[in-house]
Structures are given as C-alpha cells and as structure tokens.
Design goal:
There is one protein chain. This protein folds into 2 domains: 71 residues, no CATH class; 84 residues, no CATH class. A 3-stranded mixed β-sheet has the order 1-2-3, covered by helices on one side. The chain is built from 7 helices and 3 strands. InterPro entries: Alkaline_phosphatase_core_sf, Phosphodiest/P_Trfase.
C-alpha cells in the first residue's frame, strides 16, 4: 500500500513540476536559455526504458519543454547515496568519499554541490524525497533552503 501511495505521489509530482525529458525518437536541438526554475528529477532504480513504456505521452510533454539525458549511467558502487551525491556534485565516488549507503550521521558532503553553488549566488533551493538515507545526508548539506522528506516540509 505504501508503495502505491508513494508511486502515485511521485507521478503527481512529475506531472506538476517537471521541466522536461526528451526521447531518442525526437529531434533534439541544443539551445542556451535562462530558466527561472529548474527541477531535477531522479527516480532511484528506475531505468529510462521503463519510464518511456509506462508514461509515453507524459514523457513527450516533458521532452518538448525541457532538458533530458537518456544516456546517464550510475557510478560504482551503484547505490542510492553514492549515486545521488555524485549526481549533485559532479564528482566521482572517490572524490566525495561516500562509498555505500551506510554512513555516520555526522557525514558531510565535502565537495561543492549544485545546491551549495546555487545558494552562493542567492538562488533559493529545495529538495523533495522519500529516502531517509538522503534525508540524513541532505540535512547536513549547507546551501539547502527547504528540504522535504516524505510529507514533512521544514525550513532550515
């Protein structure tokens, strides 16, 4: 039941706030533009093939209105925490030091992230996620203005 509720909430979130994803079936023309808002969506453990087969019409809308990557690959080890820290920091596991999903509560991300960089330029940032592993690590990340784990939203 919890999985169905989480899946439904994720679908609603995707529908309401996604900037876009582009399929390989569409012609892509790179462009430079300024975006007032950026939404980064990561669905842990979900391949692009499953997403395309499950929501083809929705994905087409995202593709036509945003940026995407169908060729993104995970890091090694391909676990939730190392992969997400690499994604938001742009560095490999050996550089950020998170080598597994287990970490002491006092662990901090020691490299700049998209959130800390945006914050240093005065940009408001927020996260919404379900994983309590990420909740602990993101709570310690400076530069996060609002963070939400599940349904609780709190200011920091």
């Amino acid at each position: 039941m919890k999985f169905k509720k989480t899946s439904f909430l994720l679908l609603v979130f995707l529908c309401l706030s996604c900037a876009g994803i582009k399929s390989a079936d569409y012609d892509y023309k790179p462009s430079t533009f300024y975006a007032e808002k950026v939404v980064l969506i990561s669905i842990d453990g979900l391949s692009s093939e499953v997403l395309l087969k499950t929501f083809p019409d929705l994905i087409k809308v995202f593709v036509e209105n945003g940026s995407y990557s169908w060729k993104a690959r995970s890091v090694f080890p391909s676990q939730t925490v190392p992969a997400h820290i690499s994604m938001i920091s742009g560095v490999v596991v050996l550089s950020h030091g998170f080598i597994s999903n287990w970490m002491p509560f006092s662990s901090k991300i020691s490299v700049p992230t998209i959130f800390s960089t945006a914050h240093s330029y005065g940009v408001f940032t927020a996260t919404v996620f379900e994983s309590h592993r990420l909740d602990k690590i993101f709570a310690l990340q400076k530069g996060m203005d609002i963070e939400s784990a599940g349904t609780q939203l709190r200011l920091q």
